[in-house]
Design brief:
The protein has 21 helices and 23 strands. By secondary structure, it is of the alpha/beta class. A 6-stranded mixed β-sheet has the order 9-14-13-12-10-11, sandwiched between helices. It has a 4-stranded antiparallel β-sheet with strand order 18-17-22-23, with no helix packed on it. α4 runs parallel beside α5 (about 130-145) and α4 packs antiparallel against α13.
Length: about 700
């Protein structure tokens, strides 16, 4: 069914409803209308990295880990698997009359906000700090979730439109001020790509204001959607509309808030503010036409999903949930997401040369450390500790110790402080090598109201690990046993101590239900790590602007002024993939960079070819070269390959102070390599990208 056909059916059905019935359909808890054969429908569902909050589902790596794969093709497969499981669960549950929250086919994912500041607790829900990477990964997710048929397999949602990345504690009354340049260059591109390229079915507004306007009732932002050709429906973030009168001071009461939102393009209210629409209508604040049009938008989506006429997806069985293929896909995603930050040669570990391995740390045997937030329930979780035990079997003795609580000063409430520290030291002393598993979980970084660190409402106040874990790091380092640090977290954390004292640092993010298996396969060399950092690891927070400042100056790799601890785009492998040669040629469809790659290392490995560009003439170009193309590759040891990588036309433009994207120079520099061209990346990687100068 085409969108036009779905819209005509929606108009005909909505025309048969009373005005009150139409109003009721604009709430996320849309009631049944039995006389018209319309069942109840709850619009609220989540699928950030797997069908969430409704029982069993494949739990893929958290979004930030998926971003670290730099692999849109893989993400499209992941999203397709998510939509198949969503359909399977919907088919089974709706047949039994279960139409509760988290049971529908309208998934409020992906989150394509920019992870502009490492303090933001929800940053791990995103694909990272770069607008180009986020655009490519977001488009892949939407295409995979929605499918390419006339019937939507599921409905995706681009959120949170458009300038939203903390602080969590202030979001209900905060005004995010962003310049016209930052809007066009940083905050809007991913949303534009999801609308123009992927045809995303819905867009969700944010809690905060954007340059004075409520994000869920913004004339400017709605104008952008119209400019881009958006044809789907717009939904408020949950309970965001009541902030209009309670916190933002945009209006006086719920009726005015409902009218403000509806009259500015918000079709669906997650929350209860639209319960005041009858009053708003009675007061002349909204028209019947506006109510009707919003209802038509929503029923167009329901028709496009085949919820009234049936679809080819109605026969997807429940056995697709956690199918063997989906579990293997989750393991592959976890493998590709892992980023090797340091390796002095200790990795990969050789089991034949080990008698005893110590697995230590509060994240070692923690399911919470696998899943991040907005997650489903795996039928079996494989923690890092379990993955290592399964991989080694009986051939190597594995000793374990929790070492400390994730953040408290003791594990047992009535014990003395540091009650697990001596055990960890003893295990380290008895081991040939220690695998130390540290990090965070959703109780320490996440969304306001969900995370347990109420002092920051889910945001981080520091880049340091909790004190309990810092003590454990120091104690393990003091034993002198060779140590590999596995970091399980969703954001930048200070790795300066680990960098100085441990042989290797492997960032696993929140690797999903199969994360422990993938970690073991990497640690013991069955596969090579190949992920890249989708965010900058800073040396200190002091170099960053205030958290509340939404200007990009001094932020992220594109505008930072200091050397990173670990730069965006960095990640080691067990091989040695190098760009030997690179050249640029002009084609009828734009410039193309031709690269010659060689794996000069002893191990087969995946890697990511990255192209960074900069206009050399314009004063409007970002301070540092920006990512403009990338390609995931796999090379066997000694293999040499050639490939062409197209450069998008946007890489030849800049955004000026008025927010206009334009060509503003003729001389460009491009760099082709497996990292950024900055000095720190070259130092850490031991190689430099190839530089290409080009005249337009």
């Amino acid at each position: 069914m085409t969108r036009e056909e779905a819209r005509e059916k929606a108009r005909a059905l909505v025309a048969r409803m009373t005005l009150e019935e139409r109003m009721g359909q604009l709430l996320h808890t849309a009631p049944a209308i039995p006389r018209l054969g319309i069942p109840a429908y709850n619009w609220w569902n989540e699928a950030l990295h797997g069908v969430a909050r409704a029982g069993q589902a494949t739990v893929f790596p958290q979004a930030i880990g998926l971003g670290a794969t730099f692999d849109p093709e893989l993400l499209e497969e992941v999203a397709e698997a998510i939509s198949v499981e969503g359909r399977a669960k919907y088919n089974a549950q709706s047949a039994l009359g279960d139409r509760d929250i988290y049971k529908g086919l309208t998934f409020w994912s992906p989150n394509v906000n920019l992870f502009r500041d490492p303090r933001w607790g929800r940053g791990h829900e995103t694909y990272g700090e770069d607008p180009f990477l986020t655009s490519r990964m977001g488009v892949a997710y939407v295409k995979g979730l929605q499918g390419d048929g006339e019937t939507l397999r599921a409905s995706a949602c681009a959120k949170h439109f458009a300038v939203h990345s903390g602080p969590e504690a202030l979001r209900h009354g905060f005004d995010a001020r962003a310049s016209a340049k930052d809007m066009e260059e940083t905050y809007l591109p991913a949303f534009e790509a999801l609308v123009r390229e992927a045809g995303v079915e819905s867009v969700m507004g944010a809690y905060n204001r954007v340059n004075g306007e409520g994000a869920c009732a913004s004339e400017v932002l709605q104008g952008k959607l119209k400019e881009w050709g958006f044809e789907g429906h717009f939904v408020s973030d949950c309970l965001a509309l009541k902030d209009f009168h309670l916190h933002h001071g945009l209006c006086r009461d719920a009726a005015e808030a409902a009218a403000l939102a509806l009259n500015h393009g918000c079709d669906l209210n997650c929350g209860e503010t639209y319960e005041a629409l009858p009053e708003a209508y009675a007061r002349g604040l909204v028209t019947e036409e506006a109510i009707t049009e919003a209802a038509v938008h929503l029923f167009t989506t329901r028709f496009r999903l085949g919820l009234f006429d049936g679809s080819e997806y109605d026969s997807i069985p429940l056995t697709e949930v956690e199918s063997p293929a989906h579990l293997e896909l989750a393991r592959q995603a976890a493998r590709e997401s892992a980023v090797l930050l340091k390796n002095d040669g200790i990795l990969p570990l050789n089991p034949t040369k080990l008698k005893t391995v110590g697995v230590i740390g509060p994240a070692a045997d923690s399911r919470a450390s696998l899943i991040g937030n907005y997650h489903g329930c795996a039928s079996r979780y494989v923690t890092v500790q379990e993955g290592i035990q399964d991989f080694l079997g009986d051939s190597v003795r594995v000793l374990t110790a929790q070492g400390c609580h994730l953040f408290r000063d003791r594990v047992e409430p009535i014990a003395q402080p540091d009650d697990r520290l001596a055990e960890a030291i003893a295990v380290a002393n008895c081991s040939d090598v220690v695998i130390l598993c540290l990090g965070l979980d959703e109780t320490l970084e996440g969304e306001e109201g969900d995370a347990g660190n109420s002092y920051a409402s889910g945001d981080k106040e520091t880049l340091l690990l909790p004190e309990s874990q810092r003590k454990l790091m120091e104690a393990v380092a003091g034993t002198g046993t060779p140590t590999v640090l596995c970091l399980l977290a969703g954001s930048d954390l200070d790795m300066s101590f680990a960098r100085a004292h441990f042989g290797a640092i492997l960032d696993l993010w929140y690797p999903g239900g199969q994360g422990g298996r993938a970690a073991a396969e990497i640690l013991f060399g069955k596969v090579s790590p190949s992920g890249k950092l989708p965010v900058t690891f800073y040396e200190t927070l002091e170099e960053l602007p205030d958290f509340e400042d939404y200007s990009m100056e001094g932020r992220t790799y594109r505008y930072m002024e200091h050397a990173a601890q670990y730069p965006f785009g960095f990640g080691l492998t067990y091989g040695d993939v190098r760009v030997r040669e690179a050249s640029l040629s002009e084609t009828g469809q734009g410039p193309v960079i031709h690269v010659t790659l060689e794996n000069a290392g002893a191990a087969d490995t995946g890697d990511v070819v990255q192209i960074y560009g900069k206009c050399l003439d314009s004063s409007w170009t970002p301070r540092n070269p920006a990512l403009c193309a990338f390609r995931r590759v796999y090379l066997r040891s000694g293999e040499c390959i050639e490939m062409d990588i197209p450069i998008p036309s946007s890489a030849l433009t800049v955004v000026d102070g008025d927010g206009q994207r334009r060509v503003d120079g003729e001389r460009f520099a491009f760099w082709a390599g497996t990292s950024q061209p900055d000095g720190k990346s070259c130092e850490l990687a031991g190689k430099e990208p190839v530089r290409i100068l080009w005249h337009l």
